[in-house]
Design goal:
CATH topology: Rossmann fold
Distance between the termini: 11 Å
Strand content: 25-35%
Strand order of the largest sheet: 1-6-7
CATH architecture: 3-Layer(aba) Sandwich
Shape: globular
CATH class: Alpha Beta
Number of strands: 9
Length: 153
């Protein structure tokens, strides 16, 4: 019997205080299953400890604040670019990320909630209407339909 594929799904928030230069997330020491890492995100530590066959990083479209897209596809593309930039930067700061970027698929999901967005240095109150259950369903569908991810059987 074949061993099932290991899939790591990681949801990322907004790591910046002011984009692109000032992070809101400081480096801290994370501990998981006896492994330690000092990073801005747990992603590299989880990657090392879990040893997944594939990684899905979920970012919300609400990461984008400083552009005026002409379509949702443009908005999602910009959110993907911004999230990828952070992941590459964070992985460059941590040990044990070898192979992570090659195994990662980035999914941009619709944002939901009400919060202050300080992305471009302002204090704008953002309200994104929707249901959190739609977010979960969207992510599950993206993961299930992804042709390049190993199928868990």
């Amino acid at each position: 019997m074949r061993e099932p594929a290991r899939l790591l799904v990681y949801v990322i928030g907004n790591p910046w205080r002011v984009y692109p230069g000032e992070y809101a997330w400081d480096k801290v020491e994370y501990v998981f299953r006896g492994e330690k890492a000092e990073c801005r995100t747990r992603l590299s530590l989880l990657y090392r400890a879990v040893k997944p066959d594939a990684v899905v990083v979920v970012a919300q479209d609400s990461l984008v604040f400083s552009c005026t897209p002409g379509s949702y596809a443009e908005l999602a593309g910009e959110a993907e670019r911004v999230a990828k930039q952070f992941i590459e930067s964070a992985c460059g700061e941590c040990q044990g990320c070898e192979g992570l970027l090659e195994k990662t698929r980035l999914v941009v999901a619709p944002g939901v909630g009400k919060y202050k967005n300080t992305f471009s240095g302002g204090e704008a109150l953002i309200t994104l209407c929707g249901s959190l259950s739609n977010f979960y369903a969207y992510v599950a569908g993206e993961v299930y339909l992804a042709p390049s991810l190993p199928k868990c059987t």
